[in-house]
Amino acid sequence: MSDSIKAVDWVDDALVLLDQTLIPLEEQYRSYTDVDAIIDAIKRLVVRGAPAIGVAGAFGVVIAMDEAKRNGSDAEALERRIDEIRDARPTAVNLAWAVERVCRFVPQGREAVLAEAKRVAEEDRASGDEMGRIGADWLIERLGKRPLTLLTHCNTGSLATTSIGTALGVIREMHNRGAIKEVYADETRPLLQGSRLTAWELKKSGIPYRIQPDGAAALAILTGRIDAALIGADRIAKNGDSANKIGSLAVALACHEAGIPFLVVAPESTVDRSKASGDEIHIEIRSDEELTHFRGIQVAPLDAKTFNPAFDVTPAKYISAVITEKRAYEIAKGETL
């Protein structure tokens, strides 16, 4: 199923994105050949999810080189445009990581950069399979091979990656092993990535699910409905502190109180070992309109002030393990990344 979902692709010298702002009502792919449009797509969440943003940014460097050639821009102007792509969303480390990785090949020319961007995408696809296997092994070893009810927050599947996903990839692997009873998908306010995107992917995969409001997650966990919770991450500090979609911390606290596993699933490229702890992770603040309006319809008083952080940081002490394509880091036991 994941092969039929391509959140990010490269076709006919253009970056092609599945417009996630339209799902589940429409499945529309858009082609991008200029830098401003790519930056807008990243900021508006046409493409989202740390790994997918990273791949989009890598291909975006190729677009920047093409644009510079068309405009006759010099190397300094090209560097500024690449910086704009890298900085389009500051919390997700994968974007800067991927852009900087392919930039090393700029002196070798466009085709070298394109080849490296394709390698970034291929490595992401391979890492999804490994995270799925490692995460499923971890859960089954600790909870037994039985149908589990799992909770997930935001969207961490094929729409957020170029693979089967991170946390949702583990869920898919568990489903393939006959070890899923049901998945509780938090709706994920304010943009509903859970009810719009995760539910859409679960339905396509044939995995039993139900949607719940974010505010119901703690009740579901503390009343024994949930066996474990899995989330993705946009940046993970060296000590295991993890930044993810706002609301993740509340899920972690509830899991800690209930004594059930709380897993963070993300590729090694999401681990930022230059950050000692979550205190050093910059949290993106989104616009007021995301809370005061929905699809252009006003749902709050005019000029209402908001507090709209895109992410929160879950301290390592509340994380049972961080699953990457390399291994399971037992964060709750004091391991660091």
Automatic annotation (TrEMBL):
* Keyword list, A-Z: Isomerase
The record's GO molecular-function terms, alphabetically, read: S-methyl-5-thioribose-1-phosphate isomerase activity
Q: Which Pfam families match?
A: IF-2B (PF01008)
InterPro entries noted in UniProt: IF-2B-related, IF-M1Pi, IF_2B-like_C, Initiation_fac_2B_a/b/d, M1Pi_N, NagB/RpiA_transferase-like
Tell me if Isomerase is a UniProt keyword of this record: yes
Whether Flavoprotein counts among this entry's keywords is: no
- Gene Ontology terms describing biological process: L-methionine salvage from methylthioadenosine
Protein known as? Unannotated protein
Q: Which organism is it from?
A: freshwater metagenome
